[in-house]
């Protein structure tokens, strides 16, 4: 080790003296100071740094292997060959790379044989701009280049400041509207299926009218022979909807639906015969039932009490049959109206399109389902050649860099045009699945569905009850409305934000 003064050795400490860690070192040769001599190989542990006004700072150390009173105070000006002793404290890679005191020290792996010491140094990626190019230049910090400060000589040179879409959201309101230049276009077009997305190319100019948060809903079409579609719909959508009756395939599903909306009425769409010993009643097509309450255990079987004229009927929760919801009203709703009365998921049908849209993507779809609602940070944008036709960019879903320009806005006398906003954006399956994963990060796993009727008939009612457990405790959040497709696992969401 090179000959160092004690003050230099202190700067190499991997941790501060205020931490719980101790710093232990040894002198490779004999050192003498004042009236004391420390022999070669003596192990010393740093206790503190003594600072007295008008005197030299000293390193107060404990002599290892001696009584606690065996302490020495070494002046920081003392020179010698010092070596740090190996410490028991362990560090993670993140701690080493994030600490300026650690990232230049030597380490070894714990529990693994490594003869050579390791020096871990972080390598950063530097993003830079050139005044003659609009692209963002990226290079690693380990690249050996000669850099000369020319700030004073190039004061008249202007650089474009790159902003991500999330950074644009934090810009003050006074910055809008503004013409922006795309410095880095989106790398992928796999999330949105709209006509403006492919036009977001390098050096393309856009008009950013404003930035903020928009209430939106995610709609899905019923799966048919072709494909299933998904849409991101803004709460300004001007179309009207009617509720669609839900379909249920078991009494258990009726029970869960009744918890969400008391007073549920259904019509039987499949005949069922009475099964002796199983407690299954006779149901005929066309009979209407109104769910009254959960009847608890009847003959060791969880059951549902329903009203069937002229007498009530008890249906076991494990009973399989087909039912369709009976709707007593035929009102037309806007998205805001739906949010005031109903919870999700909700089946609806478009009965009148948005008159402000030239081509409404929801046209011709027989049935839709509101899957979820969300507050989405958006940027209202348009192309300079048609500034009145606007679209909302979901800033968190598109990776793109732009720069604000000083170009004039594409309208006269500071009179912005009336914006016609595309309130419906078709999204891909990838977008929907990514949204479900993000929305269900902390959600518990979905409950196990009840056993089928065929499996139930192979067991006695008491045996079946002991294996199924209590559905009233763990299955209250089961999603309903399954129509010829698997149900996406989304939690029940309130639509109060569009009220």
From TrEMBL:
Q: Name one Pfam family in it.
A: CABIT
Comp. bias (Polar residues) = 467-480
| Organism superkingdom | Eukaryota
Q: Which GO terms describe its cellular component?
A: cytoplasm; nucleus
Question: Per the record, where are the segments of Basic and acidic residues compositional bias?
Answer: 457-466
CABIT domain sequence ranges:
16-156, 176-383
Stretches for region Disordered? 439-485
One GO term (biological process): T cell receptor signaling pathway
Query: Member of which family?
Result: Belongs to the themis family.
> What is this protein identified as?
Thymocyte selection associated family member 2
Natural source organism:
Takifugu rubripes
Task: Tell me the organism's taxonomic lineage.
Answer: Eukaryota, Metazoa, Chordata, Craniata, Vertebrata
